[in-house]
Amino acid sequence: MTLDRVCKRFGGVVAANEVSFSLSPREVHGLIGPNGSGKTTVLNLISGVTEMDSGNIWLDGQLISKQPCHVRARGGVSRTFQHPRLLKRCDIQTNLYLGIDLANMKQKSMTSCGYTLSELLDAAGLSINMNDSITTLSYGQQKLFEIVRAILSHPKVILLDEPAAGLNSKEMERVVALIDCAVKGDAAVLLVEHSMDLVMSLCNGITVLNFGRPIAEGQPEEIQSNEAVIEAYLGRGRSA
Amino acid sequence: MLKINNLYAHYGNIEALHGVSLEVGNKDIVALIGSNGAGKTTLLRAISSLVTRNGEICYNGENIEKQSPRYIAKAGLLHVPEGRHVFPGLTVQQNLEVGSVSWRGIKNASVAEDLERVFSLFPRLEERRKQYAWSLSGGEQQMLAIGRAIMGRPKLLMLDEPSMGLAPKVIDELFVKILEINSMGVPILLVEQNALLAMEVSQKVYILEGGRIVLQGDSKDIINDARVKEAYLGKLKEKVV
Amino acid sequence: MMANKKAFWIITILAAVLAITIPLTASNYMLRVVNMTMITYICVLSMFVVFGMAGQISFAQAGFWGVGAYITAILTTKLGVSPLLALIASGAGAAIVAFIMGLALFRLQGHYFGFSTIGLVMILNGVFQNWKPVTGGADGIGNIPAFSIGSFELSSETSSFFLIFVVSVTISIVTQKLHRSALGRSFMAIRDNEIAAKCMGVNSYRNKIIAFTIAASYCGIAGSLFAFLASYISATTFNFAQSSLYLVMLMLGGYNYLAGPMIGTALLMLLPEWFRPLQEYIMLIYGVGVMLLMVVMPEGLIGGGKKLYAIMQSKRGWATTQAKNDIR
Amino acid sequence: GSSEKATTDDKNKPIRIGVVSSLTGERALHGQYTRNGIQLAVEEINAQGGINGRKLEAVFEDDNGNDAGAVNAFNKLSGSNVAVAIGPIFSTMNLAMSPGIKKAEIPTLVIGSSNDIGNQKNPWMFQARTNDAISATAIAKYAANQLKLKKIAIMHDTDNFASGAAAVAKKALEDLNLPPVLIVAYNSGDKDFTPQLAKIKASGADGILAWSQQTEAGLIMKQKKALDLNIPLIGSNSYVTKIAIDLAKENAEDVYSVADYVTSTPIPKGQEFAKKYKEKYKIDSEFNAAMTYDALYLAAEALKKAGSTEKEAVKKAMSSIKDFVGVSTTFTFDENNRGGTGVWIVQTKKGNPVVIEAVKGR
Amino acid sequence: MVWQLIIASLAMGIVYGMVAMGMVLIWRAVGVVNFAQGEFLMLGAFAAYTLTLQLGLPQGAALATCALLMGLVGVVYHFITYWPLRKSWDITVIISTIGASIALKEVATLVWGPAPLAVDPIVHGIAKLGEAAIEWQFIVTIGVAALLMAAIFILLERTYLGHILQATAQDQYAAAMIGIPVVLATGLTFAISALITGVGGMLLAPLFFVTTTMGGITGLKAFAAVIIGGFGSVQGAIIGGLLIGFVDTFAGAYISTTYRDAIVFLCLILALVVRPQGIFGEKIAEKV
Ligand SMILES: Nc1ncnc2c1ncn2[C@@H]1O[C@H](COP(=O)(O)OP(=O)(O)OP(=O)(O)O)[C@@H](O)[C@H]1O
Ligand SMILES: Nc1ncnc2c1ncn2[C@@H]1O[C@H](COP(=O)(O)OP(=O)(O)OP(=O)(O)O)[C@@H](O)[C@H]1O
Ligand SMILES: CC(C)C[C@H](N)C(=O)O
Ligand SMILES: [Mg+2]
Ligand SMILES: [Mg+2]
Questions:
Q1: pLDDT of residue C4
Q2: Given ligand 2 and candidates B41, B48, B164, which is best to mutate, with the most ligand atoms within 8 Å of its CB?
Q3: Which of A32, B238, C133, D118 lies 20 to 30 Å from A73, alpha-carbon distance?
Q4: Structural domain that includes position C84
């Protein structure tokens, strides 16, 4: 997947300003930056929740930036949300399978994707009953569940918005395991996260945004020592 | 200053706390950690009387078990909730002014001094005083939530996951401010997922699991406890830090 | 799953028993009440599809009911079309109106769609009442023939019962299938979280229009049945209050369960019969009853019943569902 | 249904007469008058020994003030073994009930005034009222000939009764070579008539003919004054009903109307009724009460003539009623079952309608 | 004629505005649409009848008493329809208000009877303005309504108490936490809402008589005003009310006297399609 000079403004706020980067299959790409720097906005633009002002997005050589949200989802873009958005009044089964129904995944067998549902649930540390109401899951479980659901439709790109927010370090390991599964299934992962532990240990490449504009791109090590990034985002305190 | 003894809390018929005891001293920062769903938020809500509770809650020697949220806020026990909960349709300044409701009621008392105090602590908020709260960034909203609590003239501040969703740099700045507030003589009860950070700034730690305190002690000791390392710091931490 | 199967059979058998016993035992008047109840039930099912499943509040359903009734009335009295054809045309006509309105109105998000349907029902009502050459204006349309197939006429209350019964059972089954289908699941996804649904690949704009159209076709059919049964129709029947009544019935029964519409409709339609001596207070009882039931059972009778069942099963069950609503 | 094989009439029990009226809903006040009128008549007849040796009993069913309710109420009655039924004064409700009446084959007296009621040619439905073809023509003639109005505006409700009557009046005016300068309509339940009245004012009309139900009549009289529109108003029966005059108060002064019954009716029987009614209920009698009182006596007359409660016989007897003097007018049923034969032109003076001319229809 | 219509539409518009403003207040306080707002109007009108004609209070005292009583009605209403349901889905509250609207109509029928009632105006007679004539009561209505609406607007937007009420409306959980007595704040908002609409009813009573059904269509048109003005906006409610009054009257005079309600609602739909957020939009946007 490739983003080419993607822009979005809200009134006076430029939330995404000429954002360009690309993802290859099996890559985990980090997207970091200060609060309000436009990370979520970029995910919204990729998944089609918000329309972009200018720029292009290609997936597998196909221009998707003019497609509506649901077409992109069927074409292999799946995502999670900063606050879990689950189907509150549906049972777990409906929550899980809806995406699969629609991505026309029925014909492909799960195992050919490199993982099974139970493997995924194991990785997430979730033991659930399919007929239970979704509200029986705690906040952390809901976040993990959303990732499982996103992976399950066997997408080409998975967009994760702060999957580890509100999870403790132990629980973050589950996120890591899930992302591993996704990579095994040949998906590319775009990870938005504030937990540097997670980002630095997982990502192959990182893009740093500030005021909607990319200020650095590179390997985790380069980013960690980049002056501009330290200035804008990491800070010099404890973590330096 | 705050002494909790054998506290139970309920959501409907579900019991979320099963007899928690905890103490916050006069100048302390006390950290409370535990995994998701352990009951940390519930404990703070119970102290603020926002859930059904029973057990002894002694605040400055007075048992406030039966009191209303308003009484408790008035007494200076202020709570910065998980997820910020600023008033989105009010401006920054209006949010702060409303924060003083606990001590001034609906009277038009002067709050200029209190506002000054908050603005000197968080200059960012002063720049945005006319902006609606919903349009603030996550970090700014967190500052606003804390600022609003400070407007209530806290004698004890409870912070619920202040670092959630914030950029590392902002977290650093925020914790500097938290320490600053503490140094002004306000004891703090801090709930944090980032256990390492929490233990670094606090003097005392309680670990809550399944609605019970499973471990407590001085932060310096607990931080080196192998069990804690295993349970809350995880392998990731070791790899990177 | 098992429980659902069992429930399905219980309902089927119950329906069969009712189909045989009601016409044999009920007076003509009670049969008329039952017939009206079933017609209303179809409209409430329509509310179930558009609101219960797809989460779009619609106050236009009584308007579509009227569209169906008028189509049948006009086709049979003025153009001499056969009743069966008129029945089908009514369903289709209401669906077409809904489809066209849906194209425009579903550009609106969230509550705003619901608000616009209030406008829709008022406009439809205005047209029924004032488009004299076509709808007869305030005079309405009378002398609508009874339903017939070929030369076999269903003019008695009993034969109408069978017609309406068969249609409502058919529509119930269609709804049941819809509820289980991928399309139905996508409706529910839209109801619960439209943005998430979109990101899972649901074409929410299209599917909302589909739900609205399907629902309107139910109402159109119900309207046609009503026209045949009443043989006189006029504008005052098809108004906003009627639509909100459907909503109330659905919510009282339980919006998230297929049996909800049935229970809610039966309760409110038969209520006046039960409280006949209190005729003057019936509307008061009704209004206060609705308020009380909402307080006691916000999830409707079925939801509330399930909770009670859960209490009996284990005390915890009640608590979880209760507690999760605690903080919004 | 099983009730078809209803128990054959028990000769020792009273004869049941069903009454559909508005006991609840916006029109519940009508229901009160109806109930009073019916009950007064029933008591009188029973005091004189009843009909064919049997007492009468009135059974009331609520129509909720709307068409669907009226249909429902009639259905309820048709299942409860009534010999004759009496319908409400609202034409649209009568028309809504018509198919049901035909199906149930119960001789039914309805009190709406619309011309369409007779046009239904429903052999079981009888109009116990003077119909609008007569009264609307009378109004038009009175306006043109007596009041010498030249530029007349017509205002009417869109319901069946009012729009039908307005059409008759329009035709009558055209026949008199005085086509109306303006016709404006409104929907039942409207509250604000400023646009209509302002249009009439702007049209330069020198008089208004209006057909309305009572509440609207009250509002129209009031708003006409408020707009400083000082031209004569000649209204339908509603304009001199107690309900409308009580609402419009001083604004009802001098308004003309065509009425079936007013307390000052010249008919002796009517005056007697007014007295009895006032004695019994401590309030003035009123159009609703008088019409239903008449309807009940008509029913009794038919039952008496038929000598049984057999439906076909009662129907026959009803159609043959001739020159029956009621409290409102004289009734003779024609081939279309239209009964009433005349109305009164009245004018409100000091809050009371007084008769100024009699109109004979047939 | 135009002048005549303008004055009439202004008076009607301001009454729609008062009902609309009441709706907006409740919407902002607890996030639900109150389908019984029109019945507050009706209650206010009946109160006018009882206070002036049955109890013989002078007009000024009656107005004040009516305002007080309606405030009380608002508080009671709050505790019956909203408070027990505050934690459940908002649609259940809406259903509850639909139930309340039916029940209130019936209570009114039981207390005051089904017949329409006439009420004396505060100031008798008609005023002549050039070729147009208008009842003094209309002018009084416009005056009192404008004053009251301005007062409430200032209270909400400019005073500290108003900010407290707004804060509670926006986040009850946080409001409780910082020490706002939430019951009082929501109850007070309901009281103000019922008060303004009820006073609207009292002013309207002498103009259109008092009936138990007077709230229905007025309520729906006021609701249209709320939407056209922009959901949740107090200014919007006023402007929307005036617009609806204008369309209502002028459509009646120049387009069709019988389709006028339909035209009003057609305008509502057009307005929604063209500008869904209404004239003054919603201040708070949803972030993804
Ligand atoms: N729907 C919207 N309307 C107006 N402004 C918006 C909207 N969505 C986002 N913004 C603005 O765009 C900027 C970028 O927001 P975004 O949510 O993308 O930040 P982020 O990088 O995800 O921050 P965080 O780390 O706090 O989640 C912010 O200033 C925000 O206020
Ligand atoms: N509103 C509620 N209704 C019912 N149960 C609740 C509610 N809030 C929390 N719980 C339950 O109470 C328990 C404690 O939850 P609490 O929110 O206090 O955990 P926490 O320690 O703050 O977790 P986190 O780190 O995720 O914030 C959990 O099992 C949770 O499911
Ligand atoms: C006089 C009115 C009260 C009734 C009118 N005659 C009608 O038939 O509708
Ligand atoms: Mg974000
Ligand atoms: Mg928590």
A1: 61
A2: B41
A3: A32
A4: 14-266
